[in-house]
Amino acid sequence: MKIPTFEEIEERGRELNKLRAAGKPALIPNDPWKKDRPPCYEPPRLELGDHIEQALKKVGITEERVSAWLRKPCNCGKRKEKLNRLSRWAKSVLKKHP
């Protein structure tokens, strides 16, 4: 996929703003930026457990390292899944009670 230039990004932004100002959906017909992705493409959504895992990895704290320090399995995967479930629950509560 070709990386767009700054001018192309600016032009695309102007087109989208015109559509929004006219009260139309901000969709550009035959958008060249979407041709490389299937129409139903949605990037994966990261949740709380995923963000914590990424942050710890960036500073060098990995599941293997924690297990070595504790000298037993750390259950990081279970903790990550619990935090992800907590994140989904909190989002659903906030949607019901804004």
What's this entry about, in short?
The chain is mostly helical and 98 residues long.
Distance between the termini: 40 Å
Task: Return Rg in Å.
Answer: 21 Å
Contiguous low-pLDDT stretches (5 residues minimum) are: none
Order of helices and strands: HHHH
The total count of strands amounts to: 0
Given the helix and strand composition, which structural class is it?
Answer: mainly alpha
Number of DSSP helical runs: 4
What share of the residues does DSSP label as strand, in percent? under 5%
- Mean of all residue-level pLDDT scores: 82
Task: Describe the structure in your own words.
By secondary structure, this protein is mostly helical. It has two domains: 1-43, no CATH class; 48-96. The protein has four helices and no strands. Helix 2 packs across helix 4. It is elongated. The two termini are 40 Å apart.
Secondary structure: elements and pairs:
Layout lengths: L5 H16 L26 H11 L4 H8 L5 H21 L2
Key traits:
single chain, 98 residues, mainly alpha, 2 domains
